[in-house]
Amino acid sequence: MQDAAILTRGLTRSFGSFVAVQEVNLRVTSGQFFGFLGPNGAGKSTTIKMLTGLLAPTAGQIEILGVDLATNPVAVKRQIGVVPEGMALFGRLTGAEYLNFVGRMYGLDRDLTAKRAAELLEFMELASEPKKLITDYSHGMQKKLALAAAVIHGPKVLFLDEPFEGVDAVASNTLKAMLQRMITRGATIFLTSHVLEIVERLCTHIAIIHQGQLVAEGSIDELRAGVEAQIAANATGEKLTLEQIFLQIVGGTRAVEQELSWLS
User: Fold this and answer.
1) Cα separation of 147 and 193, whole Å?
2) Do 110 and 104 meet the contact criterion of CB atoms below 8 Å apart?
3) Spatial contact of 213 and 206, defined as CB atoms under 8 Å apart
4) Nearest-CA neighbor of 80 among 7, 141, 24, 6?
């Protein structure tokens, strides 16, 4: 059995009486491009915040690359990269200043940090306005900068929370190619996204969370086979898409009969 890059046991997070994530057991193998899906409010972002040390779990255990996150948080954070839901950028810095700051915080020396920052800004097409402050970046530009900051130190595990939101098609294609190269070089990527076509194209394995509980996990072919076994055979013989699989698993296939009065 291959080593686990991400391993959780009984991962739980409560907010008062509300249980946002309940006893989630995940195993993400090293080198996988792993998609983590769920409806709005299912617990995806809460799970990522726990996996990256931004939020303490109420119960359960997290291991990243075999290291316990609770007992060795700094050792874990040195080896991961994160694009969080809110990006958390420093708006009064330029892109170069921000990347140099992040690189130095990860322990890279000054020259290497400057070299990687310049390469990333060029790669992300953010180098043309070097004096522009991050607060004046468009949403898509900020997404690209957040991803650049997440990879500047060469992480072994990369966590991405909606990385393609607000990113144009050209930039999205560039980012997808970069992520695929990271996988080829042995990195592990944990991705959440509502754009299921992108997840289906990139990810080899999927987990689905619904109402705080893990309801499905496996390769796309395994999930497809499980769903097809439960429903009538497709008359056209075509493979179910990830969107169809997802909707079947989370119960989103019911017909919507109610109409808006002013649109009827």
Assistant:
1) 15
2) yes
3) no
4) 6
pLDDT score of 229: 80
Q: Tell me: the pLDDT tens digits for 203-221?
A: 999 999 999 999 999 999 9
Amino acid type, 31 = G
Can you say whether the dihedral through the CA atoms of 124, 127, 130, 136 is positive or negative? negative
- Spatial distance between the Cα atoms of 231 and 214, rounded to a whole number of angstroms: 21
- Are 79 and 65 in contact, with CB atoms under 8 Å apart? yes
**Nearest-CA neighbor of 19 among 73, 48, 59, 62?**
59
Contacts of 200 (CB under 8 A, 6+ apart): 220, 241, 242, 243
Mapping DSSP to helix (H, G, I), strand (E, B) and coil, where does residue 175 land? helix
